[in-house]
Design a protein that fits this description.
Blueprint: H1 3-19, H2 28-44, H3 51-55, H4 59-83, H5 87-101, H6 104-107
């Protein structure tokens, strides 16, 4: 994701909330809870699908998956904005940490946690 586009989206979300006087409800804890709720709605779209079905949703399912994914992203961006951290920098740092924890030559093809090898 382009950092400028992410910043613009965060600004747009901030303005959206401000125009509706919703900022009062956007405490980090509330945003985190809303994020989890939306992630649950996203998971529900896959709950009873087979693995093959989950890889090829029909148009109606894909529309719902897109909408729920957008809700998750929106709350995540809003949370990062309220707490003042760079979401892309946080993701980069986490990937670097995971590269150290899960060296490809040790974990290739394995789902074990880094504490198990």
């Amino acid at each position: 994701m382009d950092p400028a586009r992410l910043k613009n989206l965060a600004q747009r979300l901030s303005e959206f909330a401000a125009l509706r006087d919703w900022d009062q409800f956007h405490a980090p804890k509330n945003l985190a809870m809303a994020l989890v709720a939306e992630a649950g709605e996203l998971a529900a779209e896959f709950q009873w699908l087979t693995e093959a079905q989950s890889r090829a949703p029909d148009e109606e399912q894909l529309a719902r998956i897109r909408a729920e994914s957008a809700d998750v992203l929106i709350y995540l961006i809003r949370l990062a904005d309220k707490l003042g951290f760079d979401l892309l920098a946080a993701a980069d740092a986490k990937i670097e940490e995971n590269e150290r924890r899960y060296p490809a030559d040790k974990v290739r093809g394995s789902s074990r946690k880094y504490t198990e090898y």
